[in-house]
Specification:
Mean pLDDT of chain B: 83
Shape of chain C: flat
Distance between the termini of chain C: 54 Å
Low-confidence stretches of chain C: none
Helix content of chain C: over 70%
Chains: A mainly alpha, B mainly alpha, C mainly alpha
Radius of gyration of chain C: 16 Å
Number of helices of chain B: 5
Oligomer: heterotrimer
Shape of chain B: elongated
Number of strands of chain C: 0
Largest sheet of chain B: none
Chain lengths: 169, 118, 89
C-alpha cells in the first residue's frame, strides 16, 4: 500500500479532478475563462490542503472503480423498488433484523465507501462499526437469509473495493 | 420532438415524486425508528434523482445547451444520505430507542452502541 | 402534458411534506423528529425544482443547492448535539 504522492505538484489527482468538475458544474459552463479558473483551483487547493489530509490508500484500478460505480447505481434503482414494495405492504409482514458483517478490508476510506454502499443498496442501513474496524453492524428491513446477505455484501461490494484499493487480507 | 422530450420528462417527474412520496409514507407508517430510517435514505434519494434528471432534460431542451448542474445536487444527496442515516442510527442506539419486538438479534444493537465486537 | 405531470408531482410532494410534518409532531423520540426534518428539507428541494421547471427558469438551482448543503449540516449538528450534549468538544 503506497500513500506517498506520485507527483509533487499534484498531490491528489482525484481531488484535483473533482474540484475541476465541480467548479465547471457549479457555473454550468465550458467557457475558456472558467476552464482556466477551474484549473487554477484544481492545482492550488490540493497543494494548500495536502498537509491537512490523513494518508489514504491510493486508487489503483480506475476502470474497475468506474464499473463499481455503475453497478452500485444500477443496484440503487433495484433496491429502491424492493424497499418501495416493502413500505407499501402491511408492516406485519416485515422481518427486521440486526446483522453483524465481518469485514476483510482495512483502512478508513474503503470501509466508509463500503458502509455508504451498504446504506444505499440492498435494503440495509449501516448502523455502526466496531472499534477495531473488523465488524460492520447493519439493520435489515426484511431479512430472508442471514448468510446469503453476508455473502452478497462480501462478494458483490467488498471484493471489488478490495481490488480497487489493493488491500491485503 | 417536443412531445417526446415532454413525455420522458413527465414520466420521470411522476416516478420521482411517487418514490419521494413512498419514502415519506414509510417514515409515517413503519413501526419503529430503525425501520423508518430505510424510507427516507433510499426511496427519497432515487426520487430526487429522477426529478433532477427530468429538470436536466427540460432545461437542456429549452436553453439549447447542455445543462448538467443539477447533477451536483444529485451527487451531493447521494453522498450525504448514508452519512445522515449513519449518524441518526448512532444517535438512536446511544439513546437506546425502543426496537420492534420481532427484530432478530436485538442484543446486537447494544453491542453496536458500545462499538464492541459481537 | 408537462403541466399535468408537474401538478401531480407537486401534489405528491405536498402530501409527503404533510406526512413528514405529522411525524415531526408525533415522533415519539428526538431522532424521529430529526429524521422527519431531514426528509422535509429533501422534499422541499424537490418542490423548488418543480417550481423552477414550472416557471422555466434556472434561478432556483442555487437555492436548492444551498438548502441541500445547509440541511445536511444542520442534521449532522443536531445528531451530534443530542449524541453528546455538546457541539464542539
Amino acid at each position: 500500500m503506497q500513500t506517498k504522492p506520485r507527483f509533487r505538484f499534484l498531490p491528489s489527482p482525484l481531488h484535483s479532478l473533482l474540484l475541476f468538475t465541480v467548479w465547471l458544474l457549479l457555473n454550468n459552463t465550458l467557457a475558456p475563462g472558467h476552464l482556466v479558473l477551474a484549473a487554477f483551483f484544481a492545482i492550488t487547493i490540493p497543494l494548500l490542503t495536502s498537509g491537512m489530509q490523513d494518508p489514504h490508500p491510493r486508487f489503483h484500478r480506475p476502470l474497475l472503480a468506474l464499473r463499481y460505480v455503475l453497478r452500485v447505481l444500477g443496484d440503487i434503482v433495484i433496491a429502491n423498488f424492493e424497499v418501495a414494495i416493502l413500505v407499501i405492504r402491511p408492516s406485519k409482514h416485515l422481518n427486521p433484523a440486526f446483522v453483524a458483517i465481518p469485514l476483510s478490508i482495512t483502512h478508513d476510506l474503503p470501509i466508509t465507501l463500503l458502509a455508504s454502499t451498504v446504506s444505499l443498496t440492498p435494503g440495509t442501513v449501516s448502523a455502526e462499526i466496531s472499534e477495531d474496524n473488523k465488524w460492520l453492524y447493519v439493520h435489515v428491513l426484511n431479512l430472508m437469509d442471514k448468510d446469503a446477505l453476508i455473502t452478497l455484501i462480501k462478494q458483490r461490494y467488498e471484493k471489488p473495493l478490495m481490488e480497487i484499493f489493493e488491500c491485503s487480507i | 420532438m417536443e412531445f417526446w422530450v415532454e413525455l420522458v420528462a413527465s414520466i420521470l417527474l411522476v416516478t420521482g415524486a411517487t418514490f419521494a412520496f413512498i419514502g415519506s409514507l414509510g417514515l409515517a407508517k413503519l413501526p419503529d425508528f430503525y425501520t423508518r430510517l430505510h424510507g427516507p435514505t433510499k426511496a427519497t434519494t432515487l426520487g430526487m434523482g429522477c426529478l433532477l434528471i427530468a429538470s436536466m432534460i427540460l432545461v437542456t431542451y429549452w436553453q439549447g445547451y447542455l445543462s448538467v448542474h443539477e447533477l451536483l445536487i444529485t451527487l451531493f444527496l447521494l453522498i450525504t444520505a448514508p452519512v445522515t442515516a449513519y449518524m441518526l442510527a448512532k444517535t438512536a442506539m446511544h439513546h437506546k430507542l425502543q426496537i420492534l419486538e420481532k427484530t432478530t438479534d436485538k442484543t446486537l444493537s447494544k453491542r453496536a452502541a458500545e462499538r464492541m465486537t459481537p | 402534458m408537462l403541466n399535468i405531470a408537474i401538478t401531480i408531482a407537486a401534489v405528491l410532494m405536498c402530501l409527503s411534506l404533510m406526512l413528514n410534518l405529522w411525524r415531526l409532531f408525533k415522533g415519539p423520540s428526538r431522532p424521529d423528529r430529526i429524521l422527519a426534518l431531514d426528509t422535509m428539507y429533501i422534499n422541499s428541494i424537490a418542490l423548488i425544482i418543480l417550481f423552477g421547471i414550472f416557471s422555466r427558469t434556472t434561478l432556483y438551482f442555487e437555492a436548492a443547492l444551498l438548502i441541500a448543503m445547509l440541511g445536511f449540516v444542520s442534521t449532522a449538528a443536531m445528531c451530534k448535539y443530542i449524541l453528546r450534549g455538546d457541539l464542539i468538544e
